[in-house]
Amino acid sequence: MKRSKVAALLATTEIDREVLVKGWVRTKRGNKFVSFIALNDGSTINNIQLVADAEKFSEDSLREVTTGACIAASGILVASQGKGQTVEIQVNNIEVLGAADPEKYPLQKKGHSLEFLREIAHLRPRTNTFGAVLRMRHAMAFAVHKYFNDHGFYYVHTPIITGSDAEGAGQMFQVTTLDPANPPKTETGEVDYTEDFFGKQTNLTVSGQLEGEVAAMALGQIYTFGPTFRAENSNTTRHLAEFWMIEPEMAFADLTDNMDSAEEFLKFLVMYALNNCKDDLQFLNDMYDKELLNRLNFVVQNSFQRLEYTEAIEILKSAKQKFEFPVEWGTDLQSEHERYLVEKHFKKPVILINYPKHIKAFYMKQNEDGKTVRAMDVLFPGIGEIIGGSQREENYEKLAQRIQEMGIHEEELWWYLELRKFGTAPHAGYGLGFERLMLFVTGMGNIRDVIPFPRFPKSAEF
RNA sequence: UCCUCCUUAGCUCAGUUGGUUAGAGCACAUGACUGUUAAUCAUGGGGUCCUUGGUUCAAGCCCAAGAGGGGGAGCCA
């Protein structure tokens, strides 16, 4: 007989038939006459109840059916006699596929702290919480591809190993096959990277944007969705050393098009979660964050507040609240400033644009005022910056000059500059941190709990 | 990296002014119970009080250093 998934059985109206289920035991309870086994197979957060009568199953035969054990069970799917579920399985046969010593199995019926579960990342997907998070992670990844495919964007695979260190987005992980204890040296005593695998120094990517622009200047609209690496010594609830980033890039788009795209995209993703992850969202709402569903609904129903950086500075300066860091035009906004704007002043997502050029990246399009660039940050409640983007500088001379001013190695960016030399066009794009999106849609408080195997300083255990 | 808090049973935590035998709930084991819903009830086993050093007649508790973890900040997505 073919295995049925628990999700399908709980949704079916065809009862009084024989079924086979396989999954992991969550709890067993009962008395000497009957045992009730709650079984979960990951297809849904809900369990199916197996009913094992003592006539068919001796106490001994159920000895290995304990919390955490993996079993296959066959029997008749029937309308439940008890309350709390509509159907259950009157079991005829149980096979223990893998026992789990109840003295040693770390997961129990009752709740565990998220900190403890982080130490057993190989078992935490079997909890309600991580089952919900991982199913939602899949749903969100699928929704990303669906949105862009439906809107005429092409998925482009940008390289994970990069020879450019000019992206300026933080510390990078080096990729090398040289012997770390005894690397080849040049005459001046420095490591000779011409002997390395690629003949030059290489690193793991911190962004696919520059290569994404290459593709956008041929295919029109593209997006990347891949792993991204930052070797910063960041120890926060919002940073990982290895995370996934989505970077759309659009030819013939300006900053307004960019804002429109980012807002529509985020709303689509949240709407997709609301429509397709109901059970998991309800669980997370009940267990972790009673405002989660309200907040998600609010985001899809209200337009984001669009605001000039200069206006934001004025709002912050006239705010009654005292800030730890002083506010002055030309300084970057601190977390406390972003939180004030989003959570206190506007009480909705905010898109901040036109930042001072000296606090933003070299590739952003310069405004006529000579002071600001067409940058855009989307700020979300509780998370801060969820998207960062800009219109790109498409003028060769202005871009080359900016590269010089900022002391970036021009020779490594020759191909990026040539995009402006041959058939240049206005274009814009942005980057969405996938795990920050996951924080928002799940209501989880720590980014280490929305990725199956988190990578952060001093931690790569699993 | 900085600030701050925490570390006691498998898990979550209590532990008074430093005082003699370190507790609870859950989990686990045994038993009871004719349909349970994180089942319930009874009984029982279970401890490197993070590590090292110090103060003291006496340290889970006070002091110092270290390790691990949480939260906040910086950097950013």
How would you concisely characterize the structure shown here?
InterPro entries: Aa-tRNA-synt_II (IPR004364), aa-tRNA-synth_II (IPR006195), aa-tRNA-synth_II/BPL/LPL (IPR045864), Asn-tRNA-ligase (IPR004522), Asp/Asn-tRNA-synth_IIb (IPR002312), NA-bd_OB-fold (IPR012340), NA-bd_OB_tRNA (IPR004365). By secondary structure, this protein is an alpha+beta fold.
Characterization of the model:
One of its GO terms (molecular function) is asparagine-tRNA ligase activity. The chain is elongated, with a radius of gyration of 27 Å. The chain has two domains: 6-98, OB fold (Dihydrolipoamide Acetyltransferase, E2P) (Beta Barrel), CATH 2.40.50; 125-171 and 206-449, BirA Bifunctional Protein, domain 2. Helix 3 (128-150) packs across helix 5 (255-276), helix 3 packs across helix 12 and helix 5 crosses helix 7. The chain has helices at residues 6-11, 114-118, 128-150, 209-219, 255-276, 278-287, 292-301, 309-317, 335-345, 396-405, 414-421, 434-442, and strands at 17-30, 34-40, 48-53, 70-79, 87-98, 154-155, 161-162, 174-175, 202-204, 221-229, 242-251, 305-308, 350-356, 372-380, 384-391, 427-433. By secondary structure, it is α+β, with helices and mostly antiparallel strands. The two termini are 36 Å apart. An eight-stranded mixed β-sheet has the order 6-10-11-16-15-14-13-12. The protein has a five-stranded mixed β-barrel with strand order 1-2-3-5-4. Strands 7-9-8 form a three-stranded antiparallel β-sheet, with no helix packed on it. It is built from twelve helices and 16 strands. It binds one RNA strand of 77 nucleotides through strand 1, strand 2, helix 2, strand 15 and strand 16.
